[in-house]
Structures are given as structure tokens and as C-alpha cells.
Amino acid sequence: MHIVLGPSPEPRGPDGDTAQPPWRAVSLDAGREVSARDFPRGQLAAVVRAVQEGSERPDRIRWVWADTREVYPELLAAGIELARVWDLRLCQRILRTAASASSRGVEYAPAADLSEEREEPAGRVPPPRVDPRQASLFEAPAAQPQPRGPACDQLIRELEAQRRAVSSSPEPHRLNLLLAAESQGGLIAEEMHHEGLPWNRGIHERLLEERLGPRPEEGSRPARMQSLAEHVGRVLGSERLNPDSPQDLLRALNAAGVRVGSTRKWDLMAWAAEGGAHVEERRELIRPVLEYKQLYRLWTANGWHWLDEWVREDRFHAAYVVGGVVTGRWAAHGGGAMQIPRTVRDAVRAEPGHVLTVADASQVEPRILAAMSGDRALAVAGRDHDLYLGIAEIGQRTGSALKDRQAAKIALLGAMYGATSGDSAAMMPHLRRLFPAAIELVERAAEAGERGGQVATWLGRTSPAPDEAWFAAVRDVGTAQAESRSRTLSRSHGRFTRNFVVQGTAAEWALCWMGEIRRRLRAGGPGGSGLRTRMVFFVHDEVVLHGPEEEAEEAHGIVGEAAAAAGRLLFGEAPVDFPLTVAAVGSYAEAK
DNA sequence: TAAGGACGCCAC
DNA sequence: AAACGTGGCGTCCTTA
Q1: Is the predicted pLDDT of residue A132 greater than 80, yes or no?
Q2: Whole-angstrom distance, CA of residue A108 vs CA of residue A132
Q3: Where residue A324 falls among pLDDT bands split at 50, 70, 90?
Q4: What's the pLDDT score for residue A133?
Q5: Residue A464: phi, psi to the nearest 5?
């Protein structure tokens, strides 16, 4: 059973109100319209609740709408959670790209334009759905007037178009799974945004004070940084040095005999390391610079301003962007949600009587590669918890150069990223000998990309084609310079497609993993009424749950079962494991 | 003065 | 040591 929700094609409400044009809910049974009703937009939550409560199997309803971000927040604010949806916008994006590659065999003609570019001609960053400066970020945006997108009847035609595209595709089962998972991702993203990551302001403030000193006046540096800045100026012999300015700092460093080409941490450390007899002296010289950089980063990225802007009532409400990365990975908008540095993770605390269950999937990408390529040897290497150690063991047995963990890791990451030089590239022949099927897969993806071709993930997310300028530049081999540029561009796109198939499929696994966790959390607990434990954070291959202590054991079991279930969902009974590191902790910093 | 690139560092 | 994939973001600095 599908229920399509969207603006009514009728221009005015039942009482003739044009200021509040109505919305429409249409029930479809096997694609046929069985009922329809119009209602004022403001009653959306009430209508959805009534349908859910009036249904014997509300979990079997698949709600269909243009954009989860437009609708679901107000349902969550009203305490309504839905089991299944179809997000036409998210699905359209996947289908459009798939259909753009003739080799994919997906035929799709959109019936309604749901692309982001409609509102955002720049077309780069999706518009934030709330203004971070407004308190409404943390409240239901129910009252905000919304732009009127395609009407309900158009959405029904769009749903039909999408379903046709799926069933006509070479792999309908996989593509359907991808679209369902992506839609469910839309739900999960909004639920996690609504729930928020428990963030203890007091602990964060204490941490800042310990390292930076008391909160400074607006416009001036924290005390500890100010004295360090002055110290650095004295040491380098440049009074009035502003270490915040890379140019300034580089000049001062060079003037003081520090021969570096940039002010990067690694450049400075390398300079010190090659000091021969003067290593210690050099380290002493750059130490305050490095310390200043560290504090500067903490202050600017996760300091008091960040706390004020992003943490409300001890929760950090990260705004996720589903499929925000070309590969299908999620992005986050605002607050740097996917780059929470280790230094502040101690502020992430379970609330009293609760625990954080931190589940981290081990070496997902090489395991994905093993499953996709059917490489038995790589699957065997991944039987234990540590796949890289598994490779090292095989390497030792067979007398390969891949005989320690570090070498194995560098080599495999290099194969997936497209390393062309150094230790990593040197290991490629050994890697190829041990894992021919896996290496073959990434090499083929790279070759396709170098020619400007499109590649696809396991479930069928397709990489975008390079633009015309790219093809023109790659064709241009008139001069030595042009030829070099052509090769650079070509190789670069090859590295992109090489990584796309693995990173993208890993993202699909993660999406299914979260979906399975969600399903189990909803179904678990006494009488199957659902646990109180909630997913509160996600980043690529890691999930954080927050819930009552007494549910911790069950939550631990759920994340593990869900990981295995996700593997089966994608790859059937392929002999590839997806082990996790799971920690039940009071503080995020205790995990890993 | 606003926009946008460069820089540098954070995450997986 | 970094190289080599995908991103966000705060700041400085140049450009229109």
C-alpha cells in the first residue's frame, strides 16, 4: 500500500482559502488509486496520525512524497515515526544519473522535476532547510510557508515513472533495494537530527578552559593562545607576528632559518626530523608553533562559538545530507558533524542512567571489495576481526612482501585510492598475486574512468560523466604541455571511478546497516513495542546509539546482527564478514 | 564590500 | 614522511 502526499492540484481549500492551499493524500493499491482526500496543509501531522492509527498494519504503508526534509520534521515534532517511505527526490537523483549512462540500461523519463537545481541555480550545496541562526533549528518548522512543488497527481506519475525505470533495469532487485535504502536513509537522517547527539556543555567548557584558558572577550584571543603567539614571535625574532596568517608565519619561519615551503604541520615536522645533530633544537623551535596551531584549531572549529551555535539543551543536532557525496556517502551541513575531532569527543556523554553504544565497522571498504569481486583469498583474510592482519598472515605463509599489518594496510588502501608512487604502488604486484580478483575489479573501474566512462556501485548508483570540457582537454594532445594535462585529467578521473565503486558500495552497506538497526530497534523490546534506544550519530562506518542502561546489551546485539544482515542483503551468502568494534560507554572518548 | 579561492586541518 | 579517494569549514587574502 502506497500513500502519496503532496500539494493538491486544487488551487484553493474546501472553504475557498487560497492563502492556505490544501494538500492531498492519495492511497494506491497495486498502483491503482483507491481513495483521495484534501486537507489543509497545517493538518498534515493529524492526517498522517489518523491513517497510521486507523490501519491494522501501519508498518506496511509506504508513504510517498517529494522530499522527506519538507515533511518529516513536523511529523517527528508531533511524535510520529513512520516505518517506510519513498523519497521521490532522492530516488530521482539516483535514477537520473543511472539513465545518463547508456551502458547501465536504465530507462527513465522523469514526470516531475525534483532536482535541487530548481531552487539553487549554483547547484553545488543543497540549501540548508533551516537557518542556523534561528531558534527554529531546534523546533518544528511547521509554520514556515513552503514553496509549492509538483502537485500530488504529478507525484503519482513520477512514482510510476520511477517504478517503471526500476523494473525495466537489468538489476531491478538491486536498484529497488538501493532506492528503498536511500529513502529510509532520508528518514534516519531526520530522526537523528531531531534526536541529537548528547553533548555535555559543561564538560566541553571545562575542556576548553583547561587548554585555552577562560573564555576571552569577543574579538580577542584566549589567554593561553595570546601568550603562545607572543612567545612564537620572540622565538622567531618577529615581534608583532600574527601566527593566524599563513603568509606572515611562513615569512617569519623562513627569516628564522626554518626552510619550509608551507606552514603545514607535516612540513614543519619533516624539517625538524631532517636536522641531523640538531633535531632536538629544531623540535624545540617549532614546538610552540605546532602547539599554537593545535589550540587555534580547537578554538576556531570547536570553541565557545561552536557551542553557542550548535549545542542546545545538551544536544548537538547535526543536519545530515543524504547522498550528499557523489559516491552516496552522507555529508553533513553545519557544525562539522562528520569531523568531530578526537580532542572534544569527551564532551559527548550519555545522560544519567543511559549509555552510548558506539559501533565501528572494521575495514569496511576492503571487505566490500572482497564481496564485490568474489575474491576468495581476500574474504579469507577478513575472517578474523582484523583484515589487514589476515593479509599479513597470508603474506607470511606465502613469502610475500606483504608480511606485516602496516604494509598490508598501505598496499590495500593504495589499491583502492589509486596510489601511483611510493611504498603503496610498489606493493601492487604482490597484492595482485595474492588477490587477483579484487585488484582486477578496481583496475577495470580505473580504466573505465580514464576513458571518461561511468561506473556503478553494487546496487547501481552510477558515477557522473565528466563534462564536455574534460573530454575536450583529454582529447587535446597537441603540445607536450597539453598532453601532460590530458594524462593528468584522465588519471585523476580514473582514481575517482576506481574509488567510487568501493566507497559507494561501502556507503550502500552502511545505509542497509542503519536501516537494519532501525528496524530492530523498532521491533525489539517488551512486546515488540520498540526500544527506547535511539540512533544519535552516524559517520560513514560508525553508528552511535543512546539509550537506557538496561537496553545496552540488546543494543549491542542489534548492531552486530544488523551488520551481518546488511551483508546478506547486499551480497547474499557471500563468505564475507562485517565484524564490528562495539563499546558501551559513558563518554564517546572511551570508545576506540 | 561581497564573493570566491587558497590554505590548512579535521573526519572516514 | 607523503603519495593516493571522498568531504566540511574557519580564516586569510585577493579580486571584482
Answers
A1: no
A2: 36
A3: very high
A4: 31
A5: -70, 150
HEC secondary structure over A94-153:
HHHHHHHCHHHCCCCCCCCCCCHHHCCCCCCCCCCCCCCCCHHHHCCCCCCCCCCCCCHH
Which 8-state DSSP code applies to residue A518?
A: H
Comparing CA positions, the residue from A50, A93, A92, A102 lying closest to residue A75 is A50
Inter-residue contact A591 to A585 (CB < 8 Å): yes
Q: Nearest Cα to A463, choosing from A436, A435, A423, A496?
A: A496
> What's this model's pTM, rounded to 2 decimal places?
0.93
Instruction: For residue A537, list its beta bridge partners.
Output: A544
Tell me the β-bridge partners of A355.
Answer: A547
The H or E element that residue A3 is part of is strand A2-7
Give the nucleotide with minimal C1' distance to the Cα of A491.
C4
- Strand B contacted by A353 CB (< 7 A): no
Burial label, A494 (beta-carbon count in 10 A; 0-12, 13-18, 19+):
buried
Q: For A246 and C13, how far is CA from C1' in angstroms?
A: 10
- Contact flag, residue A495 CB and nucleic strand C, below 7 A: yes
Helix axes A364-373, A405-417, angle to 10 degrees: 70
And the C-alpha cell for A216? Answer: 576571552
CA distance A167 to A147: 32
Q: pLDDT, tens digit, for every residue of A342-384?
A: 999 999 999 999 999 999 999 999 999 999 999 999 999 999 8
Distance A165 CA to B6 C1' (A): 43
Does the nearest atom of strand C lie within 7 Å of A417's Cβ?
A: yes
Q: What's the pLDDT at A127?
A: 39
Closest nucleotide to the alpha carbon of A331, via C1': C7
What SS3 class is residue A549? helix
What residue type is assigned to position A354 of the chain?
H
Closest CA to the C1' of B10: that residue is: A339
Query: Rounded to an integer, what distance in angstroms lies between the CA atom of residue A97 and that of residue A323?
Result: 13
Length A130 CA → C10 C1' (Å): 21
Say how far apart CA A178 and CA A461 lie, in whole Å.
8
Strand B closer than 7 A to residue A338 Cβ: yes
Neighbours of A470 (CB within 10 A): 16
Strand B: which nucleotides have any atom within 7 A of a protein Cβ? 7-12
Does the CB of A333 fall within 7 Å of any strand C atom?
yes
| Separation of A413 CA and C1 C1' (Å) | 17
Q: Which nucleotide C1' is nearest A336 CA? A: C8
